[in-house]
Structure formats: structure tokens, C-alpha cells
Amino acid sequence: MSDDPLVIFTPSGKRGRFPVGTPVLTAARQLGVDLDSVCGGRGICSKCQITPGYGEFSKHGVTVEADALSEWNSVEARYDEKRGLKAGRRLGCQATVLKDVIIDVPAESQVHKQVVRKRAEVRAITLNPSTKLFYVDVQQPDMHDPSGDLERLRKALLEQWEMDDVTADLHILHVMQKVLRKGDWKVTVAVHLGDNEHKPRIMHIWPGFYDGTIYGVAVDLGSTTIAAHLCDLQTGDVVASSGVMNPQIRFGEDLMSRVSYSMMNDRGAEEMTLAVREGMCGLFTQLASEAGIDKQLIVDAVFVCNPVMHHLFLGIDPFELGQAPFALATSNALRLRGRDLDLNIHESARVYFLPCIAGHVGADAAAVALSESPHLSDDLVLVVDVGTNAEILLGNKEKVLACSSPTGPAFEGAQISSGQRAAPGAIERVEIDPVSKLPRFKVIGSDLWSDEDGFDAAIAQTGVTGICGSGIIEMVAEMRMHGIVDAPGLIGTAEQTGSAAVFADGRTNSYRVYDGTAEGGPMITVTNRDIREIQMAKAALYSGARLLMDKFGVDKVDRVVLAGAFGAHISTKHAMVIGMIPDAPLDKVTSAGNAAGTGARIALLNREARIEIEEIVRNIHKIETAIEPRFQEHFVNASAMPNAVEPFPILNSIVTLPTQTFNTGGGGNGTGGEGGGRRRRRG
């Protein structure tokens, strides 16, 4: 093995070894990492800003020392003095590699900005927000009836709006007297209506009649992405939606890596809390800018997140979530203030966190339950929120079960050799010709297939850059359907498969999807290791679902709902071919889009829904996969495609999967015979 330093880029997961003194920008270009530069590496444009990560990263087997990169140089110092660099940032063209290092490429430094596909789903929601506007006529002060201005304002709210026992934050007292007199004793107040724990509270006051509105934000804080919807609290309309990569990703792509980082590094949890809060504030600024509003008009916020993100965002060390019995600091819903979390919105803004279900089943799963209502379903519905950590619900009117399954980031393009996140230029659809066994594909940003006229012109701006999550699932499924990869997950030789796209790659074979090297572009391939990563991810997902089916005492479900931004873009048939979801009629497998985000929006716009979800969560039965012996059994079976034991009769009525195996040690010469799955079932 080379002694050269190892450089690992996040969020792409691309890695390589480079000689000491190699500029980070050069390493990025050689690996095909999406790092921008306009000035040719002269330290002028600042497009190539990167954030190095320091400390112990057990997931990658790397400890990054403080001197992993060259010292701050005069070019960076000059740029920082003139235009300013964010704390911790370096210029990729100036910083050179000295030792093993983790490099995070922030969204603004990427050439192809991320497409965080978490749009606000169209949904009818009863509008009953927790903060509303009230116009009141306040009695003027009287020498004969002395009382304070606040007391007379409270009296007006009681008499004119039947609102009793109203309180006010200190900042209201600072401005109230001037506003009352400016409005000639007529004012509009924004009041947070309170709940079982809090009295109604005046949050803002305007002179006269305020004909504007107030806003709230619903946030789905995921391990990989943060998506938010800015809503008009008077109409319920979504006025802006936006998403960013979770800046914590540089500390680890999956949740346990982040727990490990907090355990291995002093102040590790504090670093991650600061990173995600800064990212959140940046997202709020982005939303307000997109909508053309003042951030100070955002008076309410609702958050849904998995337990680790929940704890880190709140500033709670997730240590206990890293070991059995996976104890949460609190599983109840939380009602806080924006300033408790350093949020850059209205100083009195209220924040609501949906309850968590269990140590590894978070508020995001609760939000999915609120959105999809399995507890009201007559038929048995399986709801899968596909992400770095899959949240799974199974239930009907009788009962609802829940668990989580650690799928990892492979479904989102990470840890895949040519993988990337969803961005223009990423392959998202794939078909393999049944005769030539050669692929054709579509990329994000173009409606044309790669073998259609005009494709090259259509992608001239972006090029073909890699394969995103939905693309890799279709790719592996197509390879399985057309006999290029067998049920156990081995890619055959060119002779065995009859495909000129297959080539020997070390001790195994790989499949060539696209060769852009002649034009200076990438060679995009699917390796046997990529197949294995997808097998592991889909096996974890299927095993969680199958475990819940065991607990329910059933072998099939009536329908499947795929939730999450990624779930909205999965091809149902391809997901079933690789055994990612249980066998079911294809027309009974539907997408709910970003159900967690929808649940957050419901809780933002309807305060009664907050009471409802707290009741729902109390009645959900939690299953912990880590202590269930059958989970591992299901996982081993689910590693095959689609499965080594489960028969998948509905899928088999739609497609006929090849049965040959390619393991020469097992007699698989590519000439047919029984598949590995069948031999396992007999044994």
C-alpha cells in the first residue's frame, strides 16, 4: 500500500492517495469531486472553499491531525482580510495535503448545486396555527382608574377576543407604549395561543391595523439533508421551500459515525451542534430571501428529526444512543423558544419538536405517522421512509408497529464508486438492452435518453458526472434482470453475461456504464463492491420490514408506501427486483413524497395535530432491531436479489429473473442451472 496521505472527500465519499504537497483542488479534480474554481487556482475567486475535518473518524479508520494540511498562507490571509473566510474554511487551491485528511466540500463550493428533492406535497390541512394575529382597541390611560398599558392591552384581548391570562415577553414592554400611542390605542398583536404547559403570550405588536402576515417554518432535519418549508400562517400557503446538505456530514455520513465522533473527540458533540445550527440559520436566511420577507416575521417553527439529530441539534450529547438500551434524554414533544437554539428568526419565536418514538425511531417517523395515518387504515399498510436511517411503520386500525433500520448512505450515492447525490448530470434512470446487454440512461437536467439524438447537446453544460441513488437502484436491478449480476450479487465475465460492457477489474468484474474519458470526463462503472453496498443497504431495509411483519403475524402486506425525498424517485419494479421492499402488487406500492416534511407542516399549521401526534406515538409499539434474533436471519436471506428464501410470487409473475450463478467455485459457469437462492432454500 502506498504511504501517500489518504484524502477523503465528503459528501461524495470519493477517496484517493496523493503525494505530500498536492493541492486539495488538484486532488479533487483527479478524483472527479465536484469542487468549483473560476480563477484557475490563483486564490482570487474563492469558489474552491473547503472545510477540513479534524479528530478521529472511526468509520473511515482515519485520525486527522491538526497539521494534516499546510499552514494558512499569504494568499488565504489576503483573501480573508479583503473578503472574509468563514471560520474553519480553507481555499482548496492553496491548502496542500500533508497527512491523511477528511475534506468537506460545502454546497456553495460545488459546481453542480444540490437538488434536494423535498418539495412541499400538496395536502389539505386544517388551518389552526399556534400563533395568530389579533386587532384590538385598547382603553386609554385614565388618572381616575390607574393601571398599566399592558394590563389594559390584556383586558382588551379578554373582552374583544375572549383570550384570558395573556402574558408578554420583556421585549414587548420595551416597545409597547410607543406603539400604542403611535396607533392611537389601536394595535395588532401576534399571540402564541399557548398549550397545556404555557399561557397565551404576546409575541409582537404593530401600531394600527397590520395588513401583512406572519410566518412559520416546518423543518425536516435529516442525517444527509435539511429541508424546510416557509408557510404563511394566515393562509397556510407554502411561500418558499429550500434544502441544504446537513453540514454535519463531514463528521460522518451515518448516525453511528457521528455518535462515534462525539465519543472519540473532546467537544465533538458541541462541534456538531454548532455546525447544524449554523446550517439551519443559513437555511432560514435562504428561505426568507427566496420569499422576500423579513426573518423577524418567522414566529413559529416545527422540527422533525431522528433521535441522534434531535439530540445534537438540541445540544444533548448522543452518547447513550450509541449503546444498548439506546436511551433518549427525552422522548416527549418539546416546546421551546428559537433563542434556546440560537435561531436567527423572531426573538420570541416558538419551536415545537415532535415526539420521538424510541431510541432509534425518531420524530421523523412520528411525522410520517401523522402524515400517512396508518392507525386509521382498514388494510395493512407498510410505510417506509427511505433515508440514511430507514424508519419503518406497519399497521392498521388494530395496531401500529415501528422500527428503524441502518441502511447507510449507499441509497443516496455515497460509498458507491461512481456515486453522487442528486444533482444535474447525475444518472437517475437506466435501461439495459436485452440483446446487446449495453446500457442507456437519463441524467438529471435532461429528458433525453443517452442514445437519443441531441443528448450530447442537452447535457453540454453539466456533462455526465456520476450515478445518484435512484439511478444505482435501477442500474443494479437492470443488471440482475438481464443476467449481468446473479442472485448472490456477483458480476459475471463478459463471456458469461454476453455483454461487452463487462470487464475484468482485479479479482472481480465491473460493468461500464459511460466512458467520457476521451472528452476529459469520467469513466462511470458499477463494481462488485458497489453491488455489495446496495445489497447491504437493501437487506437492512427489507429485514426491518420483515421483522415487523413477523411481529404482526403476517407474510404479506396489502400496500406499501415509500416516503422520503428519495422514495419519491424510486422505480417500484426495480426496488422489488433487488428485494428492497416486500412482494406486493406494483399498483399497491405508492410514493408519499416527503411524508416527514408533510407531517411537520401539518403540526405547524394545526396546533390540534400536535396533541394528536403525541397520542398516536403513545400507542405505537416499538421494535428494537438490535435485540431481535430474527433480524440477522432476515438480513442474510435478504442479501440475495431479491431474496434467498422469500418466494416473491407477484414479482415472478411480472419478470423472469435469470437463475445462473457466476461463482466458479460453485460450478456457476454462466450456462444456466439453479440459482443460489434455490439451493439455499433446499439446504
Characterization of this structure:
With 683 residues, the protein is an alpha/beta fold. It has five domains: 6-109, Ubiquitin-like (UB roll) (Roll), CATH 3.10.20; 131-207, Ubiquitin-like (UB roll) (Roll); 215-353, Domain of unknown function (DUF4445) (Nucleotidyltransferase, domain 5, 2-Layer Sandwich), CATH 3.30.420; 366-400 and 539-630, no CATH class; 410-533, no CATH class. The protein is built from 18 helices and 29 strands. The strands form seven sheets. It has a six-stranded mixed sheet, with helices on both faces. A six-stranded mixed sheet has the order 28-27-18-19-20-29, with helices on both faces. A hairpin with a 7-residue loop joins strand 25 (508-515) and strand 26. Helix 8 (363-372) crosses helix 15 (607-618). The chain is globular, with a radius of gyration of 27 Å. The model is unreliable at 115-120 and 666-683 (pLDDT under 50). Residues 661-683 are annotated as: Disordered. Residues 120-211 form the RACo linker region domain. Residues 215-371 form the RACo-like middle region domain. Residues 380-650 form the RACo C-terminal domain. InterPro entries: 2Fe-2S_ferredoxin-like_sf (IPR036010), 2Fe-2S_ferredoxin-type (IPR001041), Beta-grasp_dom_sf (IPR012675), Corrinoid_activation_enz (IPR052911), Raco-like_middle (IPR041414), Raco-like_middle_sf (IPR042259), RACo_C (IPR027980), RACo_linker (IPR040506).
* Count of strand segments: 29
Look at the structure and give the CATH class of the largest domain: Alpha Beta
Note the total helix count.
18
Tell me the strand percentage band.
Answer: 15-25%
Report strand order across the widest sheet: 14-13-12-15-17-16
CATH topology of the largest domain: Nucleotidyltransferase, domain 5
Biggest β-sheet strands, sense, barrel:
6 strands, mixed
Helix content: 25-40%
Which radius of gyration do the C-alpha atoms yield?
Answer: 27 Å
The CATH superfamily of the largest domain bears the name Domain of unknown function (DUF4445)
Could you give the distance between the termini? 41 Å
